[in-house]
Amino acid sequence: MAPPQKGKAPTRGAKQIHTENNATVYFYRNISLAAALVYHSITIAFYFDEISTGTIILNFIVSILYVGCHQIMCKLSAPRYSENGHLVDPGLDLNMEGGIGEHLKDIVILTSITHILTLFSNYFWFMLLLLPIRAFWLVWVNFLGPWFFEKAPEETEQDEKKRKKMERKMKRYQQ
């Protein structure tokens, strides 16, 4: 095992990013397909009489999540080639820490786990509520929280001089 590197992480080439993006898209597509296949085959084999409208709706939502995440990952990682066939842009790096690809992969993992666990109890469908909670958390931490709790800008000498000048002007107009 290599020792951890100090400093800046080494850069990866466009071809390596493209190869890793393809592997990532195929891996998460296979996870979602496997979870759906296991769920539907067991449900049809053993619980066909117990399928309710709610279960059908929740499976439809899960299918939308699977397909949506897969399509977004494909679009984000779509490479661009030059006219002579050389790779110009590998697309967005799906394996970048803190990137949108990381969140899409988390959605696929949570959805797959939920899909499999619902074979044991329908109460596991409530795990899908973690998705909007996580989305709200990300919006709060990255946008709303800093905006609400931003410190007021401190007055500088120049601002104070401008304020005093405006006060003098206001006094002149009032007289």
| Biggest β-sheet strands, sense, barrel | 2 strands, antiparallel
Q: Give the spatial strand order of the biggest sheet.
A: 1-2
Report the span from N to C terminus. 81 Å
Note the quaternary state here: single chain
Radius of gyration: 26 Å
Question: DSSP helix count?
Answer: 5
- Order of helices and strands, N to C? HHEEHHH
Task: Provide the descriptors you would attach to this structure in a database record.
64% helix, two-stranded antiparallel sheet, 175 residues, 2 strands, 3% strand, mainly alpha, transmembrane, single chain, membrane, flat, SND2/TMEM208
Task: Provide structural commentary.
There is one protein chain. With 175 residues, the protein is mainly α. It has a domain at 14-127. It is 64% helix and 3% strand. The protein has five helices and two strands, in the order H-H-E-E-H-H-H. It has helices at residues 14-46, 53-76, 100-117, 130-148, 157-174; strands at residues 80-81, 87-89. A two-stranded antiparallel sheet has the order 1-2. Strand 1 (80-81) and strand 2 (87-89) form a beta hairpin. Helix 1 (14-46) packs parallel to helix 3. The model has no long low-confidence stretch (mean pLDDT 85).
